[in-house]
Design brief:
With 708 residues, the chain is α+β, with helices and mostly antiparallel strands. Among the domains are: 259 residues, Glycosidases (TIM Barrel, Alpha-Beta Barrel); 86 residues, Immunoglobulin-like (Sandwich), CATH 2.60.40. Helices cover 18% and strands 31% of the residues. The chain has a 10-stranded antiparallel β-sheet with strand order 7-8-9-10-20-17-16-13-14-29, with helices on one face.
């Protein structure tokens, strides 16, 4: 066999190693987009005791047949194991389909990671946290937020932000530099469990990884029906999102299971605050000035008037069990009577009520109060319903530990006891008459966590069954809720991942997590905004990232980012009804300037209501206008980033109306240069401009430009 294999498709050429199939290069319009990789794939097997065996493509003997079919066999230890990789070209892209066969009966294929493209310097679009642009991939390896690890059990203990469908809401990535890029995706209509990751591959080298969990049984061959797609394109993250969105459109995803309630069309501003504690999730959480619940009404009325908007009170630490003690949340702290009185008085003011919960975990004991379910756990033998690791260990993914919020485990969502317990709690919320339940907080993106149990009603390794279990649970919940409270909307922490869009219709966005490794870009909104809604969210963790007082307009910046991404707006309250920087910022910490943030939200939310076709139901497009502005500095605890001092996005309504929105988040006028595309001009504030024009943007406001 020759040293290299050349495959062509449209404007692209793929070069593979004739020895082990590793990707050596990818040329698009004669521009080389990749550097040489070392492997085409890696596999991990588990034996019946949970011990792993890692196998790489270079450990096989490889032969080629039919031009683009690679056969791997004669492994030194797993002598009968065979791997087949079919590669086909289509419209400039290369489609890889794997099959792993003749697996020994004592082994199960846990995951497959392939193909493995490697590239040099440039930027990465990573779909974690609704879209993150990575500008320095190597910086992650020294980050306090964790370096790359292959995904495993427990999820959060090994890796962060890479789980699909979960906090990574899409199953694709892109690398781009100098106007050209590489698109890498799993076009998997089953939306099976994956790590959507980038990993170090040597100095100035990074590889993409779509580590795919099989959901196989012991000895079972793995023949997935989907393909991995690799190809070049011209552009950056927007063009990569276009490619993925075109594939999503071709799938004809189902519409929402039930129509969205009318209140979503009013674009309420979400007011997030606790009824216990002073801005933290740990320690002694005593009732505060917002308890009893109706004590918050003067603050809510004042803010509704100042914002000129309907509002939603979204409560934290309201649970009568213990704060952060899933799965049980009911009754409300202080009793149902106080809670119901608050609900009724909110509704009488034309405002809304929502609650945070803590997802599908199991709490043994609270680390905050003396709450305990240990006796029930032992009496009912509940251990058998908990998620297990490969060796039978049990653990929890998030907020778990003596110095955290609770001690406990995670519930396996294939088990009927787990499902019924969650549904029962959801029905208590539905019957309470509230408008919104973020029940699936900690299930980021709606994710169902890993379970390797040999006794549960699923295969012994993670895989597509997880998505089926979570979606069927959500669908069952939606049916039961609709029968008693059709106005109730369910949501999760982070925007809902693609398989759950039809049910989780309003969720707490987590673009702030993008700052852990890069900066946010609205990739999720670009692909899904016309299908689902998110809101700015509680901005948890922002004080650990940004030096809040060193760049005091940062809350204005984050608010304007969410607005231009099409998200609903929200604020976090501290004492005296003051708007704070975000969640888990102590109340004694100085708050931001109140007048500017209230003015910005009032102006932006008013704009949002004037143009619902664009910002409520619209589809994002690449801007045509060129907008040049001054710079703004975001000052982090570990770095400084220079960003533009305006936000700029283009939208198209379902009726075909188009507009480009430019938002000045600063509390002063700005002069910006607006340049139309060749052969076109733009309309703004009654003026028509056919050439580059300096425009004055009022402070704390959004302006609409029309390209004609």
């Amino acid at each position: 066999m020759s040293e290299t294999i050349f495959l062509s498709s449209g404007r692209s050429e793929l070069v593979l190693s004739g020895r082990n199939g590793a990707i050596l290069g990818l040329r698009f319009d004669e521009k080389e987009l990749l550097v040489s990789g070392t492997e085409l794939f890696t596999l991990q097997f588990l034996d019946r005791s949970g011990e792993p065996t890692l196998v790489a493509s270079s450990e096989f003997s490889m032969t080629q047949s039919n031009g683009s079919k690679l056969l791997f066999s004669a492994h030194s230890e797993l002598q009968n194991l065979k791997v087949t990789v079919n590669i086909r070209g289509n419209n400039g892209f290369f489609h890889f389909r794997f099959a792993v066969e003749d697996i020994p009966e004592e082994l199960v294929l846990e995951w497959l990671d392939g193909p493995q493209p490697v590239f040099g310097p440039g930027r990465i679009f990573w779909p974690a946290s609704e879209g993150t642009e990575i500008r320095d991939p190597a910086a992650r390896e020294n980050s306090p937020y964790g370096r790359y690890h292959p995904l495993g059990f427990p999820i959060r203990g090994r890796s962060f932000g890479c789980f699909y469908p979960g906090e990574a809401q899409m199953q694709f990535m892109a690398h781009y530099d100098g106007g050209f890029g590489v698109y890498f995706a799993a076009h998997d209509p089953e939306d099976g469990t994956k790590a959507v990751e980038f990993a170090p591959a040597g100095p100035d080298r990074t590889r993409f990884s779509l580590q795919t969990f099989t959901g196989c049984q012991f000895g079972e061959s793995y023949r997935p029906a989907f393909e991995y797609v690799l190809g070049g394109f011209a552009g950056d993250w927007i063009e990569a999102c276009d490619i993925y969105r075109n594939w999503i459109d071709s799938r004809h995803l189902p519409p929402p299971k039930y129509p969205a309630p009318a209140w979503l069309d009013d674009s309420p501003v979400v007011l997030i605050y606790p009824v216990r504690g002073t801005g933290d999730d740990k320690g002694e959480l005593k009732p505060n000035e917002y308890f009893p619940y109706s004590a918050a009404l003067p603050t809510i009325r004042r803010l509704s008037a100042a914002l000129e908007s309907r509002t939603m009170a979204l409560l934290m630490h309201w649970e009568g069990t213990a704060p952060w003690a899933p799965p049980y949340v009911w009754p409300p702290y202080g009793g149902e009577t106080l809670f119901e009185e608050f609900r009724d008085r909110l509704h009488a003011d034309n405002n809304l009520l929502g609650v945070y919960c803590s997802g599908t975990a199991w709490t043994q004991t609270s680390s905050i109060t003396d709450y305990s379910r240990e006796e029930q756990y032992e009496r009912e033998g509940l251990r058998r319903y908990m998620m297990r690791g490969p060796k039978g260990e049990i653990d929890a993914v998030i907020c778990n530990g003596e110095k955290a919020q609770r001690l406990g485990y995670d519930l396996c969502l294939t088990e009927e006891w787990s499902r019924r317990t969650i549904l029962d709690e959801l029905m208590k919320l539905a019957r309470s008459g509230i408008d919104y339940a973020q029940f699936f907080d900690q299930n980021l993106g709606g994710q169902s966590n890993f379970c390797y149990s040999h006794e549960h009603r699923h295969p012994p390794v993670p895989g597509p069954w997880q998505v089926e279990a979570m979606h069927s649970l959500l669908a069952e919940a939606a049916d039961e809720i609709a029968a008693v409270n059709p106005e109730l909307v369910l949501g999760c922490e982070a925007a809902a991942a693609q398989p759950y869009l039809d049910i989780l219709q309003f969720s707490d966005a987590r673009s702030v997590f993008s700052y852990n490794h890069g900066r946010p870009v609205p990739g999720y909104a670009y692909v899904f905004h016309d299908r689902v809604s998110s809101f700015l969210g509680n901005q948890c963790g922002i004080s650990r990232q940004l030096d809040l007082l060193a760049c005091p307009e940062n809350l204005l910046y984050r608010t304007a980012y969410a607005f231009n991404a099409g998200d609903f707006l929200s604020v976090v309250l501290k004492d005296d009804g003051h708007i704070h920087w975000g969640w888990v910022v102590k109340w004694e910490f100085p708050e931001p300037d109140q007048e500017s943030v209230i003015t910005l939200i009032r102006n932006l939310n008013g704009f949002r209501r004037r143009y619902p076709g664009l910002l409520r139901r619209g589809r994002m497009l690449r801007p045509e206008l060129k907008v040049e502005s001054e710079a703004y500095r975001l000052i982090f605890h570990n770095r400084v980033e220079t960003v533009e001092s305006v936000f700029h996005n283009r939208w198209r309504s379902p009726e075909g109306d188009e507009g480009e929105i430019v938002t000045n988040f600063l509390p002063r006028e700005q002069q910006v240069m607006i340049t139309p595309p060749p052969g076109k001009h733009f309309r703004f504030d009654g003026r028509e401009c056919a050439a580059a024009t300096e425009v004055t943007l009022p402070p704390l406001s959004a302006q609409l430009f029309r390209v004609i």
